[in-house]
Structures are given as C-alpha cells and as structure tokens.
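Morning!

This is the sequence you dropped in the shared folder:
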Amino acid sequence: MFGNKRLLAAALALAPLATQAAETSYTFNSVSMIRQRPSSTTITGILIDDNLPMTVSFPAGGTPNFTDRCERLFGSMLDQPGTYLLTVTVDVTTPVPTPTNPNPVPVTTLVGCQLDVRP
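The structure's back. Tokens below.
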C-alpha cells in the first residue's frame, strides 16, 4: 500500500506539468511592422526599456472575434498616427511529451491587447 501512495503522490505532483503554460506581456514603445496573414499576425518593434527590435507572432484564431478585435486595434494605431504604447499578451502552452510525440511544439495564443495613448 505504501508503494501505491508514493505512485499517487508522484502522479499528483506531475499533474500540473500536463500542459505547461506561460502568459507573457510585451509592451512596445514603438512598432515598426504589423504583418497579418491568414494563419498568423506578427508584430515587430522596440519594447519599453530596450533598444533592440523584438518580434512577437501568434496564430489567427483563438477566442471567436477576440483576435479580430485586437487586429482592428492594431489597424487603428496605424491609421491614426500618434504616440502609443502597444501591449500584447500571449499564452505559450507546451503539451506534454508522449511516446508518439516526444518533442511537442509549443502553442502560442493571443490572450490580450491594449493600446494606450501617451501624453
């Protein structure tokens, strides 16, 4: 019985690893490119407190209409020139490796977007 308890404890300890997720926000001080394709959107720019370009990509889809709303927000930023801070939040989930898929590809999903006008 003691062996079964150890096995159960080990299984419960590993349960959170079933899908490892990491939500990350990127706040761009300036944006040099927004590329929209049928399968994905890519944003390139300079992050706050940095001086090197950063590119963030995420697939189209996700919550119905959510990605579309963010993409309209990105378009508004380009249509109405000004000084903005653009924050994009993505969630990267890595599926659990299996015998048939020992190296699963992480999945990136857009979970938030925000556009702030700078004073």
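Headline: The first strand starts at residue 19 and ends at 36.

More detail when I'm at my desk.
O.
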